[in-house]
Amino acid sequence: MASYYDIDDILAEEEFIPVVFQKAATGVGLLDPSSETNNIEQGAKVELPFWLAHELHTRQAVVMSIPSCFNQMTKKEIQADPGSVDLRNRCQYFYELGCKLAPMVSDRTIGSFLLYAFKNRYKEVLSKAHTSTFIASTKPLTLLTKEETHLCDAAQSSMAAFKKWRIGGSRFERPAVLGKKRKPSDE
Amino acid sequence: MEGTEIYGRRACQLVKELACAEPGQLTRFNDDLFNQVIKECTVHYSQFYELTRKMQEEGLDVQSARNADHFGMLIHHLSLLRNKRCLMAYVHKRSEVIQNLSWKVGRVLPEEIENKLSDPEKRYFKSHSSALQSYMRGMDGLDLTVDMVPPKDPYIKVRVLDDIGVTAMGDRDTNLARHSIHFLKRSDAEHYMFQGMMEELLG
Predict the structure, then answer these.
(1) Most buried residue, A108, A114, A139, B92, by most Cβ within 10 Å?
(2) In this structure, what DSSP letter does residue A27 have?
(3) B53 CB-near residues (< 8 Å, 6+ apart)
(4) pTM of the model
């Protein structure tokens, strides 16, 4: 269970999930753009952020379906070439959202699909982070989800730390919070 | 009522601001958005309250009835909790960064950082550093904020990046003019380096 203050967890729960209302609800017409009154009718199809959809789902007020980033097309693309699928564009929190969704929706294959995607992309991500120079590596970096970017950064920073240790660089780091290395001189 | 934004969207933007910032960096406290989210919470609360009253007038039990009003209430309630979580995360994350500042930058904040803090945050920083100071005084004046990296040599060579002026260093006064190079005791130089006024010379 992620911490209450976990920023990535909060953002992952903001992803939209298509749901169908099983019960009517008053005073919340804003959630349904097609509704003319301030109410939601039974059977209305809307997209809700996960944090809302999840709670309503456990109270049997809505039925969730699978968002587009886990549809058949994405699955096929990932099976064909895991490393070149642009997951960031589809869902920044692909794995986190998938793990939250897996126990709640009817599709039982999500879990194994996530594992397959992660295992195969992991290999590519890490080897790229190690080998490529900065300019060459920006292209594949745009395809990664948040989780994969963290991994990639971790690999790069430990490589940098290792190199620094070997050469013996400066032991004093200017605090990052101060920003740029030198202030523009004011004279 | 609160415009066309879906519930929790503004609060999420606030959190996104944190996620986009470089790790350890502060952005200006977003008063405007923060207040908008609080206003949204008030709207949720009043709508929640209205629906409760409506149900009571109809003679229904608010706890057990499962009608449309109940689910309307539920959605307002959940949105309120969500907004609260986002606001708390925003303040919490910033407070962590601010706490670190008193270890890294020292007791006085550079102006460009101080401008980014809200008033309660400035107070928080002040009381955190004074708590740290009084703790260190309690340990016979041991300065815990220096030597964060184990020193190899008690003396180091530094270049001054800012006009600091004549300062007492050990038993004599040293003129720390811009671009001058000095051989100083490490513990004397450390604070200036953390404030970005000196840099270590290597080689």
Answers:
(1) A114
(2) S
(3) none
(4) 0.81
**Which residue, chain included where needed, has tokens 């307002």?**
B76
Question: Per the CB < 8 Å rule, is A178 touching B196?
Answer: yes
Whether A80 is in a domain gets the answer yes
pLDDT in tens, B51-108: 999 999 988 887 788 888 899 999 999 999 999 999 999 999 999 999 888 887 777 8
What is the residue range of A16's domain? 1-65
- The answer to whether B22 contacts A52, with C-beta atoms less than 8 Å apart, is no
> B100 and B24 in contact (C-beta within 8 Å)?
yes
Residue among B19, B47, B71 whose CB faces A7 most closely: B19
Please name the amino acid found at residue A1. Answer: M
Q: Which residue of B has its CA nearest to A173?
A: B194
Going by C-alpha positions, the residue among B76, B9, B84 that lies closest to residue B48 is B76
The full length of chain A comes to: 187
Query: Which strands sit side by side in the sheet containing B198-200, from one edge to the other?
Result: B181-185, B155-160, B198-200
Chain A CB within 8 Å of residue B47 CB? yes
Are residues A72 and A157 part of one domain? yes
Q: How many residues does chain B have?
A: 203
